[in-house]
Amino acid sequence: MKRCRYKDDLWRFLTLLVMIFFLAQSEGIRANSYGLDSKKTSQEKTHQIHSEFKADTTDTFHGVPVSFLEDLKERTFTYFWEVVDTSTWQSDDRYPTRNFASIAATGFALPTYIIGIENGYITREEGTERVLNVLEWLWNAPVGDDEKGVAGYKGFYYHFLNYGSGTRFKDVELSTIDTGLLMAGILTAQSYFDGDNSEETKIRELADSLYRRVEWDWAMNNNPTMSMGWRPERGFIEAQWKGYNEAMILLILALGSPEHPIPDNSWDVWTSTYDWEDFYGFEHVNFGPLFGHQYSQMFVDFRGIQDDYMREKGIDYFENSRRATLANRAYCIDNPNNFEGYGENIWGLTASDGPANETREIGSKSVRFRTYHARGAAAGYIQDDGTIVPTAAGGSIPFAPEETLAALYTMKERFGDQLYTGYGFIDAFNLTYQEDGWFNEDYIGIDQGPIIIQLENLQTGLIWSILRENEYIQKGLEKAGFTGGWLDETD
pLDDT at residue 290 above 70? Predict the structure, then answer.
């Protein structure tokens, strides 16, 4: 009898365990796409996902050595950690040429510091100190409608800032998109630094104040679409944000603002200007330079969420960027202009430096070379002078891992320290311009950022997971009409 009662007790115990499990599920205790407990803090979640990736790594990842990827990530992090104006803590536009700081590069530096913490390159205390320095300077910087001596106006910042003073560089514009990229980085910091100590509390407060101060509605200038910028000498720039491009993050931030939101229909107005075309066998919303398909998705996880436009097309923006990346690669493999070096693992057109502003006779035809230019390939847009840009593949790492990582690894192996040096990949190279090839001398901050952020997003989803929790990002997406996926699971 005792033996029988023991079996009965064991059966009741197992039954109870099963009931508890299903009860837990019904109460909404769930994991996100990276297996995270929703009750954990942001700090605990990011540590968990990074630890799990480290534990699971083997010798190769999507066909390339893990050692290369870890080396690339650390070198690129070191660029952002070391290349900074220590008077203002804003990031350089480029290096070793040093002309001015870039607010967009600062927007990319902020999540990079977080990546540095999670990878153990710096301590959380070091990262906290650096981020606090950045935000305190931005909050206290001189602002106003003067032509000189100020860093910004109405919450926006000038595209480039002078070293030392942090004031407007020459006559550059008050930039809407560069401010948007800066604010995306600031909100990433707000959601990540969730500690209850005074420093992390201050980061959250400053981030909130900086974001709320931006007068996005003013930048609409009573038009259905937002102006690209403003100058005190002449007022608003005539160019508006129309057609698919990097401005997705800008409109999401502007829609989510509690203080200065843009009209609720702004997203629908913007998507009405899209160009859906087939290019090299890939139907997608076209935009020539690949950065337009990458910048917003460095911050926002568009996998599985759709607006009205993408619901009608049956895909999401993540898939759209995958198609754009593969179309860019297919164009380079086809190589209609017969430039040197192009192939299945040497490809990638996006905005970058170039060898010169001149026309040269190459073989039997004239080629117009350019310095900095918005290179790209899409339906109705071909800007190609033989210049390959590593960040074109690097910024698309999550969309097409095998193709992009193979390209980066091949470039590094083939060209060595002509292309891959102390801070990772230099900005660009051109094998057609001269017999021994042209290799840029500079790194560019806004081209470095996509490489490290998107590599981390592929490996761990770190930056995506942080901003999925930000209330302003959630609100902006919802006002733009996005539903599905993780957005529907948000508490």
Answer: yes
